[in-house]
Design goal:
Length: about 525
Amino acid sequence: VNPPKDLKKPRGKKCFFVKFFGTEDHAWIKVEQLKPYHPHKEEMIKINKGKRFQQAVDAVEEFLRKTKGKDQASSHNSIEEKNRRNSSEERGKQSAGEEKRKASLSEGKVKKGTGEGKKRVSSVSSERGSKSPLKRAQDQSPRKRGRPPKDEKDLTIPESSTVKRVMTGTVAGFKWPPSVSEPVKDSDPHFHHFLLSQTEKPAVCYQAITKKLKVCEEETGSTSIQAADSTAVNGSITPTDKKIGFLGLGLMGSGIVSNLLKMGHTVTVWNRTAEKCDLFIQEGARLGRTPAEVVSTCDITFACVSDPKAAKDLVLGPSGVLQGIRPGKCYVDMSTVDADTVTELAQVIVSRGGRFLEAPVSGNQQLSNDGMLVILAAGDRGLYEDCSSCFQAMGKTSFFLGEVGNAAKMMLIVNMVQGSFMATIAEGLTLAQVTGQSQQTLLDILNQGQLASIFLDQKCQNILQGNFKPDFYLKYIQKDLRLAIALGDSVNHPTPMAAAANEVYKRAKALDQSDNDMSAVYRAYIH
């Protein structure tokens, strides 16, 4: 596809700007790493048996079907247009012949035997009978799909004659804005997000998008460009050559480590309950005996634990992270904690010469397993970029939000909204039940309206089926609500909705629902 004008092409070998089906992200890819789609399709499916890869293949096939349908329609329209043009030309010739005959008869009476009248009328009729219909047909005929007008030629990427890419059809189907004055209507909505997901209106010109991006970087240091600077090979990611450590193999950490290993990263793991490491050792991970050992032997160490106390104990406790920190060592805390905690941890890490990045994740166990988390990062910008291949392996997009503490605040706000919404869903379902309404019908109605979402459907299904196997622990969403309320108190901002939801979750905890999924808040309403 055509890259944004402001995105510079990497130096060195020839490469293309490629859109990836499935993950819906983009990257510069070297020519030698591109293969023909159809000849290699079966081979690649055998190698990549994951669900995400199959979804990507399905997306390619669907795109090709649509493209073929449009091409057939375009071909049919071209034939009809040609027939109309030929018919128009024929009528023009008949009209010209008729006028010529009449004019010849008329002028023959005056200038009999001279060729002047014939010559003059012929030229007029030719102009009227052929030029006008042709010009009209050209004006009305649709521009061939994928061919840029003259002022867009500079945007077209030259196609290599020896390379038939997997995304061949995409070049024709992906329309970049022809001018800065025309709104972006047909471009990929995911690519808007790739450029800047904080843009307030999707239908804005590209110039406005790039301007907004610069403003965000200058004023707040907050950007949301997806990490796409790593080289992807056959839908996979070129892993960093840095040694990666990971501390904490809970619901989220387990999925993250699994994806890091799948994408070829060298990973050393540690968990408080050592048995949880066994599966990852079998998958190729190395075992660290203590957090300090992991940090001292790895270049970048990630941690994902349950709460502020666990995060502090991991860093400051016996054989903790801090004991392994020395100049140049990097620590990335992915736990959802408050801004004060993460700021304290950053200070002690940096005081020992280390580099610090906070990177809490938005998602659940399923999204973690699928490598589709959303990463919110803040702190050392260079370290954020060094983590690019890791973030691509574990998530679908990442945001850099500026100074330490910003990501913690944003994460608490996101989870506050999510937790409050879950409590409202449970409240609605119980109200439907006690008033004699069908809960399934309520879900069907919601799924057809503006609130429709995967989250809504999954959580309602949990409740209807009585299945509260944890995908996001109830105790952790209550912890996040509590921290979000404290964040509001710290700036004297009211959070009455979150406070009400928090009380419902506290009741659910009292009913022994802490280790169930957050959707078990439903039980607080029926007891």
